[in-house]
Design goal:
By secondary structure, the protein is of the alpha/beta class. Helix 1 packs parallel to helix 8, helix 2 runs parallel beside helix 8 and helix 8 runs antiparallel to helix 9. The chain is globular and about 60 Å long. Bound molecules: flavin-adenine dinucleotide (FAD).
């Protein structure tokens, strides 16, 4: 639906139709809540991402009833191939796939509309309407027209850019947790060579990593990510480290032969594009009266791997579930259970933050991968991390590292 038919009232206004917002809107609409979903961009739209779907995303897509549709378009993958600085490699099995976000987000968004959510795009959230300190709706911009939409609850699912959080008065950190850059390249000759999600650590990519993820039809998503990109303090303010992502991308192609070959003989599709990440459930106030924050806006992306599609959908569904449960007493009654549910996820996110050590010290990847190739137990633990039955932090905790030096059993 276009912007002209925007209503003046609804129960819940969900801002942002990425995985978090669309998942939230679908569940709300299914629960009989009058839901309006707006996005600043017309759909289908592109989103800068690696497009990798790890097991948590598979589970969320199943819960949203779109798994079969997604997998009918996606490239199925069986392993994450972890490549260490000295060239060692281990393939960790898991439920994996790759689907460009233009298609994935469109499928998840259309499912929300099928469930009864009203989508209006392109429509931008400008600011909340505040009555006596409580958010009571939003001022939306559609082209040049400004529209006031009153809602009992506003859910912000606006991703990693902080502008909407700032406007809503819930931004606690403007700078991102990390930044990443990706491009698409068509090179069918490499289709038999790169069949897994390849993640590459190297000392010249220190504090980050490179990846190549195979899409369908000989197309690959290739990129580099930099964790803790804004950790440098200058005059008491966080600024970006002196790392140029385009140079990092060129370095990735220098140090990793398959990346070099992919780019040399392939045809680039579109420009290399960069985007920020918000990780570790950090950087935003989760609620204020009349408003909730979910998905990457709430920091739902994992540090270390930069994976966030699955957790965006999960947190979006958590927001919806708590709102539906609270409905009869007023939607603000959802805030405490929502905050508790997010807090319950926090220890896991903290472990991914700790696992960032591998990005800081790539030699750890050498050690881990060397050991995993000799020990079924360590490979199983890596598989457990991917499937979320085990903790990444344990593998790279001091104790975990010490154990890696012990004789193989
Ligand atoms: C380069 C890169 C590679 C990545 N690779 C992977 C990967 O391989 N696998 C993975 O799982 N994760 C990956 N991630 C992380 C993943 O992209 C995010 O975790 C995920 O997109 C978060 O989903 P979301 O719905 O919270 O936000 P988004 O997907 O960002 O959606 C937010 C939506 O809100 C809209 N919006 C924003 N502001 C407004 C406003 N003011 N008004 C209206 N609408 C607004 C935007 O247009 C957008 O559609 C990667 C990230 C980057 C940057």
């Amino acid at each position: 639906m276009g912007a002209s038919s925007l209503p003046s009232h609804c129960d819940v206004l969900v801002v942002g139709a990425g995985p978090a917002g669309s998942a939230c809107a679908q569940l709300l609409a299914r629960g009989g809540v009058h839901t309006v979903l707006v996005d600043a961009q017309a759909f289908p739209r592109d989103k800068v991402c690696g497009d990798g779907l790890i097991p948590d995303a598979h589970a969320a897509l199943q819960r949203l009833g779109v798994y079969d549709e997604v997998m009918a378009h996606a490239q199925r993958v069986r392993h994450v191939g972890c490549v260490a600085p000295r060239g060692g490699r281990v393939d960790v099995p898991g439920r994996l796939a790759v689907l460009p976000r233009r298609q994935l987000d469109d499928i998840v968004c259309r499912a929300a509309v099928r469930a009864g959510a009203q989508l209006h795009a392109p429509v931008r959230f400008e600011a909340p309407i505040v009555d006596n300190g409580r958010v009571a709706g939003a001022r939306l911009k559609a082209g040049d027209a400004v529209h006031e939409l009153r809602a009992q609850q506003v859910v912000l699912a606006t991703g990693a850019l902080p502008q909407a959080l700032i406007a809503a008065g819930v931004c606690q950190r403007r700078t991102p947790s990390g930044v990443a850059l990706r491009g698409y390249v068509h090179n069918p000759a490499m289709s038999s060579r790169i069949t897994e999600l390849e993640v590459v650590w190297h000392k010249r990519l220190r504090k980050g990593y490179g990846w190549i993820f195979p899409c369908r039809d000989g197309v690959f998503n290739i990129g580099v990510g930099l964790a803790r990109s804004h950790s440098k303090q200058v005059d008491g303010r966080r600024t970006m480290q002196e790392v140029n992502l385009r140079e990092m991308f060129a370095t990735f192609c220098e140090v990793y032969e398959p990346a070099r070959e992919l780019m040399r003989a392939g045809t680039r599709q579109g420009e290399l594009k960069g985007a920020p990440l918000r990780c570790s459930l950090d950087g935003a106030q989760l609620t204020r009266p009349g408003l909730m924050v979910t998905g990457e806006a709430a920091g739902s992306t994992y540090a270390f791997t930069g994976e966030g599609i699955g957790k965006a959908m999960e947190t979006g569904m958590l927001a919806a579930r708590t709102l539906i449960d609270a409905g009869p007493q007023g939607f603000d009654a959802a805030h405490a259970p929502y905050a508790a549910a997010i807090a319950a996820l926090k220890p896991r996110f903290d472990l991914y933050e700790r696992a960032n050590r591998v990005n800081d010290h790539p030699w750890l990847a050498d050690l881990l991968i060397w050991r995993a190739n000799r020990s079924q137990r360590i490979l199983k633990r890596m598989e457990g991390v991917l499937e979320e039955t085990g903790n990444p932090g344990n593998l790279v905790s001091l104790r975990g590292i010490t154990r890696l030096f012990l004789p193989i059993r």
